[in-house]
Design a protein that fits this description.
The protein is of the alpha/beta class. It is built from 17 helices and 15 strands. Helix 6 packs parallel to helix 9, helix 7 runs antiparallel to helix 8 and helix 11 packs across helix 12.
Length: about 525
């Protein structure tokens, strides 16, 4: 049979947007990294919604805090009635972002005054739902050049001190004293002061929620461990939640970088007045009871957090599910994993709606090569409704699930099918390339380049010319890997929408850059050209 390719449009996105009214969500992210705003925008696009953020310069860059006054002024000038929902990082408003929340630049009084200004703006339109989120402070300070010699000592000191308090452990007490002697005394005092301020601000956020300032408050736990200073902090916050009877309107969740994704999904679900139902298949059921790297609770509980935060429900009956989440757990049994991969491939072939969350990430936060190879060998990635495997289990699950939710919500609403399918394919391709190739190959080589440089420090590249050298390498290598993955996985891999068949035929407008002066993360963006296949 012969086919002819018919050009759908020179700019698919603009054509599809012109066909439907523009729906918008306003997002004030926790900083300017792509993980906290670009991912959310791609997820919104799957459901036909534009995610609008403040101008990027207002959000700061790495150690330079964002500008809460500029953001609040910008927000005050928006017509909130034009947005379906507003999602706000309290850390950006109170301190100037996630990194700034780990410093003492903003006093408690100043932070509270900024949040009250947010409340004042919110009072101008109570019809538009406000979803606010805040970070449960991680154990370690931000990795920067200034604290390189004592940062890890402070991390272990904080854990040992908590173990000594909880268990009256003599060895933990000895370790606490030994580690404290290696850390500047002023930094120990500053560390406790910052944590105390942040908890007080979160108590203030709970009170504001009680008084109707926000529809929902999410508290996301940044990198931590099963025991640490956050243990008591969470207990005190839970007491306040119970006292104010706020459980239906608050959510504790593992991870912070994925919360924007989850809340975009929740906002879409609330607007549609519909929740997707999900069935779970794991590569090894015992893995659900493991505590993943950088987290404080078993994957089973963290997974439930992500479902609740993103507005999805779970079923044990796959026949009643809107999609099936295939969850790859850490340290899985090889035989069970092989059966998991076979079942996954068969489910995709059968046309079931499948999402994959790869939490077998280790301490490097890198997607599982065996799962990646199995998925790409069969060229089945483009048939997924979503995929992720990056950084932490919470980050991963809180990226996969919202994207899958958005896809299912799009099916329930008036989103053009071609827009939904194209946006979903873009998301999956983006994650395959970034989560696997960047984290496994490109980032390690970039780190080696940095460490060979004079005063090489992988946490922060100090010289601008060195940033340019590393970024040039990253751009070249990732562009090649993106193009190759696109050709291998998407070209000549057609899909159908409403009785028509389409091919993704080209990549356009490729962007590859380092968002911060380090190689830890990369910003990648591109457009897909789609053409109809006519008989």
């Amino acid at each position: 049979m012969k086919f002819a390719l018919t050009l759908l449009s020179a700019s698919l996105a603009s054509t599809l947007l012109a066909q439907t009214p523009t729906r918008k969500i306003l997002l004030i992210p926790v900083d300017d990294r792509p993980a906290v705003h670009h991912f959310a925008a791609m997820i919104g696009d799957i459901a036909g919604v534009e995610v609008v953020t403040p101008p990027l310069p207002f959000l700061g860059k790495f150690k330079q805090p964002g500008s809460p006054p500029s953001i609040l002024d910008w927000l005050s000038k928006q017509n909130l009635s034009e947005f379906e929902s507003v999602i706000v990082s309290a850390d950006m408003i109170a301190y100037g972002g996630l990194i700034a929340s780990r410093t003492d630049r903003s006093s408690e009084t100043l932070a509270k005054s900024r949040l009250r200004e947010l409340w004042r703006i919110r009072k101008t339109n109570f019809k538009t739902p406000f979803y606010v989120f805040s970070t449960l402070t991680r154990i370690a300070p931000t990795a920067v050049a200034e604290n390189r010699t004592w940062r890890q000592d402070l991390y272990y000191w904080a854990i040992a001190r908590e173990q000594a308090k909880l268990y009256n452990d003599p060895e933990a007490k000895r370790k606490t004293a030994t580690l404290a002697s290696k850390i500047p005394p002023a930094e120990l005092t500053r560390y406790d002061s910052i944590r105390s301020r942040n908890v007080n601000i979160q108590i203030e956020l709970l009170k504001m929620t009680f008084h109707g300032a926000f529809n929902h408050l999410t508290l996301g736990q940044d990198d931590a461990a099963p025991v640490g200073p956050h243990t008591r902090e969470i207990a005190s916050l839970n007491q306040e939640v119970d006292r104010l009877k706020l459980k239906p309107r608050t959510q504790f969740c593992m991870g912070i970088d994925q919360i924007s994704n989850c809340l975009v999904s929740r906002a879409l679900s609330d607007q549609a007045k519909w929740k997707p139902t999900v069935a779970i298949r794991s590569s090894d059921p015992t893995g659900l009871d493991q505590v993943a790297a950088y987290e404080t609770e078993p994957i089973r509980e963290s997974l439930q957090d992500q479902f609740e935060t993103s507005g999805a429900t779970v079923t044990s009956d796959p026949t009643k599910a809107d999609y099936i989440l295939y969850l790859n757990t850490p340290k899985r049994d090889p035989n069970q994993f092989d059966a998991f991969v076979r079942e996954l491939s068969a489910s995709i072939t059968a046309g079931k709606r499948i999402a994959i969350a790869d939490t077998n990430l280790g301490w490097s936060g890198t997607a599982d090569p065996e799962l990646f190879d199995a998925l790409t060998a069969t060229r089945q990635g483009p048939q997924l409704v979503s995929y992720a495997g990056w950084n932490t289990a919470g980050n991963t699950m809180g990226t996969t699930i919202p994207a899958a939710n958005a896809y299912l919500i799009a099916l329930q609403t008036s989103v053009p099918g071609l827009r939904r399918e194209t946006a979903a394919r873009k998301f999956v391709l983006h994650r395959l390339v970034t989560d696997y190739f960047y984290n496994r190959y490109v980032r390690p080589e970039a780190y080696r380049m940095i460490e060979r440089m004079q005063d090489g420090n992988r946490e922060e590249i100090s010289a601008e010319e060195n940033v340019e050298i590393v970024e040039s390498y990253v751009k070249k290598d990732m562009t090649e890997r993106l193009n190759k993955t696109f050709l291998d996985q998407m070209v000549a891999n057609p899909f159908r929408v409403q009785e028509k068949t389409y091919n993704v035929v080209a990549l356009r407008n490729i962007v590859v850059e380092l968002p911060w002066p380090r190689a830890y993360e990369v910003h990648i963006d591109f457009d897909l050209d789609v053409r109809e296949i006519s008989n």
